[in-house]
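For reproducibility, we list the full input for the FE2/S2 (inorganic) cluster complex.
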Amino acid sequence: MEQLYELFGTDRVEEFRAKLDELKNVPGSMISILNEAQEIFGYVPFEVQELISRETGVPLTEIFGIVTFYSRFSIIPAGKYKISLCLGTACYVKGSGQILEKLEEKLGIKEGNTTSDGMFSLSAARCLGACALAPVMMINGEVYGRLTPDSAVKVIEKIKQQDLSQAASEVE
Ligand code: FES
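The corresponding predicted structure, in tokenized form, follows.
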């Protein structure tokens, strides 16, 4: 428990505990509890799964099974830049599969993961609601359309550069 406070700070842990207390005796509320955890912590850490298990009496293995089954839950922290690449039909027919391959190669991770420096996480989406701009990806809410594998990589490189220069100017 202490570890949880150290990792996430009192406010977030208390906020989650309050939600958990509210929901833990409601039948069929496990998904809602996990949604709250995902929302508050940005992922569902192992320590939080343990807490849920202790409070609800649901075995840890069962909770782990649910978290890993649904793509909306993640067991790893999201990156600073969250890339969501659309693999919906309109984007897929225009080559988003190749863009995914290229991004995975560039970032050195598979879809559903976060780079080891915590900068980028890469996930696939079904439709981002911008089919006219297919193929599309979204990074922290910003839409990038009519992509090619190379232009998608350029977007990533530009973000990296901007992030570096922003960090440098903060140090100055
Ligand atoms: S299918 Fe990609 S935005 Fe709709």
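The beta strands are 81-86, 113-114, 120-125, 137-139, 142-144. The longest helix spans residues 149-171. Both points were considered when choosing residues for closer inspection.
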